[in-house]
Design goal:
The chain has about 700 residues and is mostly helical. About 75% of the residues lie in helices and about 5% in strands. The strands form two sheets. The chain has a two-stranded antiparallel ribbon. A hairpin with a 2-residue loop joins strand 3 and strand 4.
Length: about 700
């Protein structure tokens, strides 16, 4: 019976195959195949969660695959993977239901559902793997699917672009087409994957196994420390996670990933790809604690502390940086994209500071609770954004406004989810974000804590600006509410943001206890202790004040701050700096992309022209031509002498010899005959032809 739990990740892949087999079927059939395959995954995951909670222990199903590498295929349900499987499968199901109506009539329907189900299956395989190899297969599967779905509209019509057409920063275009965006996504994430592959290969070499359970003894850390490469290894291993979850300096790919269908954006941001990096950090954080315990008292434990502090700084900085970009963005999906990278920064901060303060469970609880919270409200926000953009036929918030009257259900769901994003109590986002800020203050780390608090204020500001510009103020379009098939998924998620938030204080303890049953979750240690007072009070008070102030400015007073900003040259420069994404994208193109272009030109000029063209195409053929000419002359002269002189003269000499033998005397002929017969008989005797 337990083998049926494999359907948690197998079912979406089966859906992929069925959609491929029935590619000529109607949209309805292909959609239902995709939706049902994901529903089966969600139901099986729920059943596994029921077994996990009732039996109180992990469920492990494993079938050998590559015995030489100790690689198996199966399903591993512990505290972390069970929660993650529920989040991924049920959110994917709701997004799939939304897609049924949203993608109807669009081109590439077979391709859409094929990669949609493949995406979900890959993410579920990643989550439920018990070894690093199958986890990495799922990891790469999500990358492939995201490439296909981000570039779904590969014909690159302008309405599918992201960014403002015509705008440039440092001469670099600040807009992106679907085909270009999909390429950016796969290049950025593969850069991190290189480090991750090196890290996994190193772990396999040192631990002698690919099983996650084989890493708990942390002997690999002792060996790496003795070789002096422990810090390098840790950063290489987590490089893939940072790239996948769009953390600085890999954040740029997520910004332009908005060129795909909005349902794809919801899937990537809420349920699958970007959460894969955080999940990897969560999965490996208990192993870091185990290594810290083994190395405690020496430089090894200090290295792990410093690594976690570095991870916290990257997360906090990314959260702050992306929030500053969101506050000036004019595109609805871009605001949400910036906020996703910002909230992912909070998650990495939570994993790091939670582990530093509370050991394995501390990191698991802080990171996973905000991951779940963000998944719920961000899916609602993206699906709602898709409905709004579909209704007004524009992606720019300047073209929206007053939609609360025309789309009341969408407005309700969107505002509920937005309040959770802003961290307004008692919404779910408030509790999970506040826990991260609280843990950060307990470490005594001033910079990450300060950035986390400032980011919370900025988040409240851009969220209030977003809902004010979209649903309140002046109306620019006549719109209508979308069908129940589309609004039901995001209405459910919007209500969940307040519903779960209302009961979170009473269930958070049980949630934390569930995570204690994660592989390595029993490891507990306090690495850093400290306290920065007043963070909770400062956060909650200013979040509420800023949210209400910005909402008042845009919705009630109906002021346009940009008008006043445009009057100040300094503020305009700051606005351009934030609007052009801190010029990081432009610098990447000016240095890395243009650098490769110039290198290519130099290689063409010096390598291709001088060496390939001049040497291979000119010098070598000319040399062979000369050799052929010389050789042909020599051979022709030699054969001419052989054929026309030596051979002729030789035949003449033989003719003269034979001519002398002809004497016209019978006695001479008989003598020659006798000598010939004698020679033949002697030869036969020597050869033993006579007895």
């Amino acid at each position: 019976m337990e083998s049926l739990l494999l359907l948690a990740w197998l079912s979406p892949f089966i859906g992929t195959l069925l959609i491929l087999l029935f590619k000529s079927a109607s949209w309805k059939i292909k959609s239902l195949l995709g939706i049902l395959s994901i529903l089966v995954s969600a139901l099986v995951s729920s059943y596994a969660a029921y077994l996990f909670l009732t039996e109180g222990e992990s469920i492990h199903i494993s079938y050998p695959w590559v015995k030489s590498l100790n690689v198996s295929l199966g399903a591993f349900f512990d505290g972390l993977s069970t929660v993650m499987a529920l989040v991924v499968s049920w959110l994917s199901f709701l997004i799939a239901v939304y897609s049924y109506e949203y993608m109807k009539g669009e081109v590439g329907e077979t391709r859409y559902w094929l990669f949609f189900t493949f995406f979900v299956g890959s993410m579920m395989l990643l989550v439920l793997s018990d070894n690093m190899i199958s986890m990495f297969i799922g990891w790469e599967g999500t990358g492939l699917a995201s490439y296909a779905l981000i570039g779904h509209w590969f014909t690159d019509e302008e309405e599918r672009w992201v960014g403002e057409p015509g705008r440039r920063a440092l001469g670099v275009p600040m807009w992106s087409e679907p085909s270009h965006s999909s390429l950016r996504a796969i290049v950025f994430t593969r850069l991190g994957d290189v480090g991750m592959v090196i890290g996994i290969a190193t772990l396999h070499t040192l631990a002698g196994t690919t099983l996650l359970s084989g890493l708990l003894d942390a002997q690999w850390a002792t060996q790496l420390l003795s070789k002096g490469v422990l810090p390098v290894f840790l950063w290489l291993l987590f490089l893939g996670a940072l790239a996948k979850s769009a953390q600085f300096p890999f954040h740029e790919w997520l910004v332009t990933a908005m060129t795909g269908p909005t349902s794809v954006s919801a899937l990537i941001h809420a349920a699958t790809m970007v959460k894969a990096g955080v999940y990897f950090a969560l999965r490996f954080s208990p192993f870091l604690v185990a290594a810290y315990i083994v190395l405690q008292g020496g430089i090894g434990s200090t290295i792990i502390e410093e690594f976690l502090v570095g991870l916290a700084v990257i997360g906090a900085f990314t959260a702050f940086m992306m929030a500053t970009m969101a506050i000036v963005s004019r595109e609805l999906k871009l605001v949400l994209a910036f906020s996703t990278a910002s909230q992912l920064g909070y998650m990495f901060l939570g994993v790091a500071v939670g582990t530093l303060v509370g050991g394995a469970v501390g990191g698991l609880y802080a990171g996973m609770s905000h991951l779940m919270s963000h998944a719920v409200f961000k899916a609602a926000l993206f699906l709602g954004a898709g409905a709004v953009i579909h209704a007004v036929h524009s992606r720019f918030i300047d073209d929206m406004g007053g939609l609360a009257k025309e789309m009341p259900i969408t407005a309700t769901a969107f505002v509920l989810a937005s309040l959770s994003l802003a961290g307004v109590p008692p919404f779910l986002g408030f509790w999970t974000k506040d826990e991260i800020i609280h843990l950060s203050s307990e470490t005594g780390l001033i910079v990450p804590t300060f950035l986390a608090v400032i980011t919370a204020w900025i988040t409240a500001s851009y969220t209030a600006r977003m809902i004010s510009r979209v649903f309140f103020g002046h109306s620019h379009h006549k719109a209508h509410e979308v069908s129940p098939v589309m609004f039901t998924p995001y209405l459910v998620l919007g209500l969940a943001s307040i519903g779960i938030g209302a009961i979170w204080p009473s269930i958070s303890g049980s949630f934390e206890k569930m995570l204690e049953h994660t592989l390595g979750g029993e490891n507990s240690v306090h690495m850093l202790e400290g306290h920065i007072p007043g963070t909770f009070e400062a956060t909650i008070i200013l979040v509420l004040l800023l949210f209400l102030s910005v909402f008042y400015i845009y919705s009630i007073a109906k002021k346009q701050p940009y008008y006043y900003i445009s009057k100040s040259p300094i503020l305009m420069k700051l606005h351009s700096f934030l609007f052009d994404r801190w010029y990081i994208n432009a610098l990447y193109y000016r240095t890395i992309v243009d650098g490769f272009k110039e290198t290519s030109k130099a290689l063409y000029k010096y390598l291709d022209t001088l060496i390939v063209d001049n040497f291979y195409h000119k010098a070598i053929p000319k040399l062979f031509q000369q050799l052929v000419n010389v050789t042909s002359i020599y051979i022709e002269h030699t054969w001419d002498r052989i054929l026309h002189h030596y051979l002729v003269e030789g035949f003449k000499g033989l003719w003269r010899i034979f001519k002398q033998l002809q004497t016209d005397k019978v006695s001479s002929y008989l003598l020659y005959l006798w000598l010939g017969l004698s020679l033949i008989l002697v030869s036969m005797y020597i050869l033993g032809w006579f007895p």
